[in-house]
Specification:
Trna Endonuclease, Chain: A, domain 1; alpha/beta; about 40% helix; 4 helices
């Protein structure tokens, strides 16, 4: 699989990543300070930086998308930004941490050829949004500086 093929697919079918979202802008190979973001979407007022890899996610890929975020934030100070890493393979342990940081992980091993494959990605998106919404609601209910933790202890 080539990154370009996944890029072409997602550019033509952004609803796979953003089901029921209002997509108002989209760009491929968006250039910022000599760097190129694979895909950039504006959905419901949020700019999504999408980095695509045809190999399992590595540390340097994380640094790449974070660098793009920083460049965009510096350029568009008031922009509401989000990050998505798309890869042919994302180890679960890495995805858990990245999603805690707010970097959405989407695994696409090959260009979807059936409607079911596209629906799988959309379903994962919906589940991710539900988790993010719950996290936001919990954080909003906490007082400033208050934290919540769950301790597992053996009795």
């Amino acid at each position: 699989m080539k990154e370009r093929n996944i890029q072409d697919y997602l550019f033509a079918n952004p609803a796979v990543l953003f089901p029921s979202g209002n997509i108002t802008e989209k760009a491929r190979e968006y250039s910022i300070q000599g760097k190129r973001i694979d895909l950039l979407f504006v959905v419901d007022g949020v700019r999504y930086i999408v980095e695509i890899k045809n190999v399992p996610i590595q540390r340097e890929h994380i640094g790449q998308v974070v660098e793009y975020y920083g460049l965009m934030k510096q350029y568009m100070k008031d922009a509401n930004l989000a990050m998505i890493l798309v890869s042919s393979s994302i180890p679960a342990w890495r995805a858990v941490f990245l999603e805690e940081l707010g970097i959405r992980c989407v695994e696409i091993p090959t260009v979807p050829e059936t409607e079911e494959e596209g629906k799988r990605i959309s379903k994962e998106t919906i589940n991710y949004r539900k988790k993010a919404k719950h996290k936001f609601e919990i954080e909003a209910a906490l007082k400033d500086g208050e934290k919540i933790s769950f301790n597992h202890s053996r009795i």
